[in-house]
Amino acid sequence: QVQLVESGGRSVQAGDSLRLSCVASKRAFNALAWFRQAPGKDREIVARIRWNPGIEYYADSVRGRFTISRDNAENTMYLQMNNLKPEDTAVYYCASQWGYGLGVPDFDSWGQGTQVTVSS
After folding, report:
1. Spatial CA neighbour of 66 closest among 86, 46, 44, 95
2. What pLDDT, in 10s, does the model give residues 66-110?
3. Separation of alpha carbons 120 and 111, rounded Å
4. Which of 31, 39, 74, 75 is the least buried, fewest Cβ under 10 Å from its Cβ?
5. How far is CA 97 from CA 34, 59, 82, 114, in A?
6. Cα 101 from Cα 5, distance rounded (Å)
7. Distance of alpha carbon 17 from alpha carbon 112, whole angstroms
C-alpha cells in the first residue's frame, strides 16, 4: 500500500495563495486526488489528476482558483490554491486510487491531512 504525506497547510488571509504538496512512497496508483473536510461536514473531493495522461478534475467550488499538478519523477502531487476564501478552511487530504470514481470509497490510501485556515 502506498503511503501519502501532505504538507503546506497553514493559516492565511482571504485572497492569499497557498501550495499543498503530497508525496507518495511509490508509484502504486493510477490517480491522486485532494479531498477536504471542514468541521461538521462530509469529506469532499477538491481535485483529482490521473497520472498518465495527466487528466484533471475539479470540483465546481474550486474550478478556476485551484490547480492540481504532478511531478512524475518524484511521485509528488501539488495543489496550487489561489484567491483563497474562508469557506476553503478545512483539513486537506491526499488520496490515491487504482480505479475510477470520485467518492471517498473509490480511493484506496489516504494521508494524514494538512490544515488550511483562511481568515476573512
Report:
1. 46
2. 999 999 888 999 999 999 999 999 999 999 999 999 999 999 999
3. 28
4. 39
5. 11, 17, 26, 19
6. 22
7. 22
